[in-house]
Amino acid sequence: EGYAQGTTYHIQYIDQKGKNYQKQINQLLINFDKSVSTYQLNSIISKVNNNQKVKLDSYFTTCFVRANEIYKSTDGAFDPTVGPLVNAWGFGPQKKQEISSHLIDSLLQFVGFDLLELKENKVIKKDPRIALDFNAFAQGYSVDVVADLLRNKGVSSFLVEIGGEVYAQGKQLNDENWIIGIEEPIDNQTSGNPYKAILRLDGKAIATSGNYRRYFIENGVKYVHHIDPKTGYPTKNNLLSASVISTSCLNSDATATGLLVMGLEKAINYLKNHKELEAYLIYTDEKGNYLSYATVGFAQLIIEEN
C-alpha cells in the first residue's frame, strides 16, 4: 500500500515465490503520473496543454485513443477536453474563478474532443487553448497497468485498488472470491460511508463515479465536480453514483463518469445498448429515498444489499 495520484492504493496478491513488487509498483505509478497527471507541471499532458514540444508515450496515447472512443460512444457525455471548465469551477489544479454565463460561454468554445486529433504521434488542436484532462479515468487506467505488471510476473491471484477503483482476479488464500463494497452516496468529503452493496469479483474491473465526495456548497447550493460538457455547469440530476464492471478499469472509470453526466434514464438506455458492461446505479426518488438499478449480470454478483 502507499500513496499515488493524490490518493491511496492497496494491493494484495498471492505470489508462489513470495516476492515483493512494491518498489516496481511505486516506480510504475511515478512514471504514470509523469505522463498523464495535470497536477505535474512537467508531465506529458501538461506540456500538451501548454503547447510545448513533447514526445508522447504509450500511457498518454492509450488514454487519448480510448477517450476518443468513449466520447463518441457516450455522445459527448464523457469528454476529457472539459478541463478548462473543471478548473474554472475549482475542481482542478487551479483556483476557482468567478462564475458567470459569459465565462462559461467563452470556455465552451474550447470543449469537444472532436476539436483535436492524434496524428503522427502528435496532438493536433484546432485551437491552442484546448486542454486535456484525463483525471476522470486515468486512475482506472493505472489499475489496469498495475494488474498487467502482476500478470507479467506470473501472479494469477490479486486485487488492485487505487483511489477506490478496482481490478480483481483469482481467489484469496482461503479460496474465496475477492469481495468489493459499493458505498452509499452520502455527502462525505473525508471518510468512508456504509456499504450499499457487497459483491464478488473475478477477472473484471469495477469503478464508481459519484457526486458525494468532491463538491462545494455556495449560497446553499451544492455544486458537484462532474461538469456537463454541453452546458458547462455541474450536473444536476437524481443519479448519485454509477458503478461499472468491465474487462478494463479504464473503460469502467470513463463510462461511470459518462453515465453520471447522462442522468438516470439516458444511463439505463445506454447500458441496454452496451451489453458488454454491467452496472449498478444509485439514485433518489422525489422523497429523497435511495433506490438502485442493477443490470442482470451485476445483480448476479451481489452478495448483500442494503
Please provide a brief summary of the model.
With 306 residues, the protein is α+β, with helices and mostly antiparallel strands. It has helices at residues 22-36, 44-49, 58-73, 83-88, 101-108, 138-152, 249-262, 264-273, 296-299, and strands spanning 2-4, 7-14, 116-119, 122-125, 157-162, 165-169, 178-183, 195-201, 204-210, 215-218, 221-224, 239-246, 278-284, 290-294, 302-305.
Folded structure, characterized:
- α3 runs parallel beside α7.
- This protein has an 8-stranded antiparallel beta sheet with strand order 1-2-5-6-9-12-13-14. It has a 3-stranded antiparallel beta sheet with strand order 7-8-15, with no helix packed on it. Strands 3-4 form a two-stranded antiparallel ribbon.
- The protein is an alpha+beta fold.
- Helices cover 31% and strands 27% of the residues.
Task: Assess the beta-strand content as a share of residues.
Answer: 25-35%
H/I helix tally: 9
Low-confidence stretches: none
What's the mean pLDDT score?
Answer: 91
What is the alpha-carbon Rg in Å?
19 Å
Sheet of most strands: 8 strands, antiparallel
Instruction: Write out the strand line-up for the largest beta sheet, numbering strands in chain order.
Output: 1-2-5-6-9-12-13-14
Q: How is the topology of this model organized?
A:
Blueprint: E1 2-4, E2 7-14, H1 22-36, H2 44-49, H3 58-73, H4 83-88, H5 101-108, E3 116-119, E4 122-125, H6 138-152, E5 157-162, E6 165-169, E7 178-183, E8 195-201, E9 204-210, E10 215-218, E11 221-224, E12 239-246, H7 249-262, H8 264-273, E13 278-284, E14 290-294, H9 296-299, E15 302-305
Antiparallel strand pairs: 1-2, 2-5, 3-4, 5-6, 6-9, 7-8, 8-15, 9-12, 10-11, 12-13, 13-14
Helix pairs in contact: 1-6, 3-7, 6-7, 7-8
